[in-house]
Design a protein that fits this description.
- It contains two helices and 44 strands.
- It has 560 residues and is mostly beta strands.
- The protein folds into five domains: 8-109, Immunoglobulin-like (Sandwich); 116-221, Immunoglobulins (Immunoglobulin-like), CATH 2.60.40; 228-304, Immunoglobulin-like, CATH 2.60.40.10; 309-389, Immunoglobulin-like (Sandwich), CATH 2.60.40; 391-477, Immunoglobulins (Immunoglobulin-like, Sandwich).
- Strand 9 (88-95) and strand 10 form a beta hairpin.
- It is a single-pass type I membrane protein.
- It comes from Herpetotheres cachinnans (Laughing falcon).
- The chain crosses the membrane at residues 505-527.
Amino acid sequence: PLALGLYTVNAVYGDTITMPCRLEVPDGLMFGKWKYEMPNGSPVFIAFRSSTKKNVQYDDVPDYKDRLSLSENYTLSIKNARISDEKRFVCMLVTEDDVSEEPTIVKVFKQPSQPEILHQADFLETEKLQMLGECVARDSYPEGNVTWYKNGRVLQPVDEVVVINLQKIVDKTTGLFTMTSSLQYMPTKEDANAKFSCIVTYYGPSGQKTIQSEPVVFDVHYPTEKVTIQVLSQSSTVKEGDNITLKCSGNGNPPPQEFLFYIPGETEGIRSSDTYVMTDVRRNATGEYKCSLTDKSMMDSTTITVHYLDLQLTPSGEVTKQIGEALPVSCTISSSRNATVFWIKDNTRMQTSPSFSSLQYQDAGNYICETTLQEVEGLKKRKTLKLIVEGKPQIKMTKKTNTNKMSKTIICHVEGFPKPAVQWTVTGSGSIINKAKETKYVNGKFSSKIVIAPEENVTLTCIAENQLERTVTSLNVSAISIPEYDEPEDRNDDNSEKVNDQAKLIVGIVVGLLLAALVAGVVYWLYVKKSKTASKHVDKDLGNIEENKKLEENNHKSET
């Protein structure tokens, strides 16, 4: 490298500077010497080497004590390069007749430390010019330059918005520079999370280089421009008994810590932190809720509907009625929106609502009226009706001869609730029969059956008794040897009705035929009587009394 046409050696601060003499060693060389030139041009000799005695001498120069080394080819080395080593050095070769000189320029370079942003602001405020920080790069030679960046783009100075001041200080001892660049900045809301950094540009032996600082993010403070109210809930809907948490927030930084909450029915706002909690809310909590800053500016509102569901079952609980009685049942619903209602009887869902104009035993059971609001999670109500249908014992006895003709089955059909107790006795002797078999008690009905083979006619008595009444019915049963018409064990009501209808039809036909015959006879009798009267009038007109008598006799005979 050449500087102003002179040979230049570039050295790194702290390293060894190596300078070759760059002169051909002439014949008759006596010795070689190195010197450097002061700023005023006066020389300072620092090293000497004899070509004949091969000895090396170093001049007593404090700055270079123990730092010099001169080789046999007259190359000079200087250890621990300093900024003060930037000089013009000259190699001299001396013969008896001549002195040759060759100058070398030494340049020393020092890379600065990585720049740091010091004295950082705790936070930045919008619309306010303030000191953001100082970018410091130390121990540079030659001096460098500092540039500020935001999000990777150069920050250019702008009056009252971006103000940059660069200061360079040199250490008199080392000759190294420290660059300090301060940045005053007026941020905007958009500068939140912006990355600020600085870069130092310097020159090294191989040319221009840069070093970048670590980026820094500043907390940007800006005022609230909007408030928002929210309902914090685990569900999207609110029902009676729930807790409601209202949260009010502002979009400023830092966010507001206190707000005014306006509750339906309250004229003044309630001062609170950013949350307001209402527990076990009722339906009257439905309405519009608002919040604002404490200075009553910037308000937001939301509407809350507290869903409710009421169910009234009439009658409810345990109800006892008599068979045949009427029982009106109503399940009334009051809710915040349309509710679904259904009935369950004895764990089975009913297709229609129960209605009792004439209670039967099969109507007894456990009824549940249940309602839900499908859109509101967990809102369900139910009430129960335990219906008991009571009735006095009713008895019907039947008998039939078994197919083997060796015995007869006597059945006592019993209805009633509570379930009657049945007892069989033989009328006359009063003996009790204990070998009866009972069918399953279903819907207030069951049967008690005995099998007997009487040797003579007997009268059996069936006694049914519950808490309401005692009922007694007797049935004559012929001896097994005497034939009698058997009665069916159980007759279906529908079949009985069909038989009765057929009998009524036959009786009607017979009665109709008899009435028709009677009417025909009456008509014929009237006709004959009219004929006789007409004949009598004709005879009187003719004056034939005798013939009339004969006609009367003949008519009498004919009538007879």
